[in-house]
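go over whats below:
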Amino acid sequence: MPAPLVVAHLLERLTVGGAEMMAARLAAARAGGGRPTFVYALQGGGALAAQLAPAVGLRELDIARAPVRRPLAWLASLRDGRRRLLAQLEADRVAVVQTHLPEANFWGLWLALSRRVNIVATVHSNDEFSYGPADAAWRRALRRRAYRLVVARCQAVVAVSDSVRASLIEDLALGEQLAARILVVPNAVDLPPPLSADQRAALRASLGAGDSRPLVVGAGRLSSQKNFRDLVAAAEILRDEGVDALTVIAGTGDEADALAADIARRSLTDRVKLLGVRDDLGLLFQAADLFVSTSLLEGLPLVLLEAMAAGCAVVGYRIAGVADLVEDGRQGRLVEPGRVADLATAIASLLDDPPQRLRCGAAGRNLVAERYDLSRAVASLERLYERVDGAGT
C-alpha cells in the first residue's frame, strides 16, 4: 500500500484574512480525513495559529527576504530561506506544497526551481500586482515577470474564481498554452450549524440590537481595500433618515484606529461598533438582518460566502468577486462602488422588507450549498495533488 500523500499549505503569516482562513480550513478538512497535512508560516505569530485544527501540523519558520533594492543580501536571503524550507519539507516528507498569496507564491516559485518538491500556487485576487497608490511601476513589472514564471514553472496554478483566472490571464498576457495551466477551484465553506431562537436572541442582545432593532454586519480585514469607511458613512445616512439600525464590524487591521475616530467624529458610537476578531462569524451572520460588503477589490470573498451560507441577505458594491456570488434582486442588492447614498438606500430597502430579505438569504444559502461546498473544493484539490505528484517533479 503506498504511503499517504503529505501536503503543506504555505503562507507568509497566520493573520486572520480570507486567504489565510481558506488555507487553514482546507488543511483542517484534509487532515480530518486522515491525510497528513501541514501549515507552514514563513513568519511566526498571528491569531490564526491558535485556531488551527489539532490534526494539522504547524511549522512557524521565521524566514524572510531581504529588500530587493539590496540585491546581494536579497539573493543570500533567498538561498538561505530555500535551504531551510527544503530541509523542513524533506523532514516532514511533504510531496506537494500549496502556496497562498504573493509572498508565499514567490517562495513557491523559488522552491519549484529546485525541482525537489511539487508546487501548486494559488491566486486569490483580481489584482495580484498592485500594492496601493505608492507602489512603484518597476516593482509591478517585476511581479508580473515573476508570476509568468510561477505559471510556467510551478506544477499547477489555482485561481479561486473564473474572474480571478481571467484577470490573471489578461494581466500577464498569457497565451493559450500557459493559460491552460491555471485551474479554477473556488473558495468554499461549510454550512454553519443552525442557531436556535434563544441563541439568536441572546447574541443580538449581547450586541445591543435586541429583538426589534435591525442588525447590520460587516466583517473582514480593516484595510483600505475593504473600505469600511463607506459602511460607516452609510450608517450616518441611515441615522439621518430615521433608520434605527445597529451596524457592527468584525475584524482587525491597520485602519482600526482611523475607523474608530471616524465613528466618533460622526457621533455614531451608539450605532456603529467595532467588534475586533470574532470566532463565531457563522453565528453572528445568522443573528444579523443584513450583511454589507463595501470592498473595492476581491477575488471570491470568503466572508461573503460565510454570510450567504448562514442565510444572510447581502448588500454590496458591484465588483468582480462580489458580483460572481450576488445577483441583484436575488441574493441581495448591488450598487455601484463608491455610491454611499445608494448603498444606504439599498440597506434601508431590505431592512424595510423582511419577506424579501428572507428570500434573498435563502437564495444565497442555496447557492453556497450547490456550488461552494467545502468538501467539493477539498476533493478537487486532492485530485490535483495526486495528479501533480504522479507526474513527478
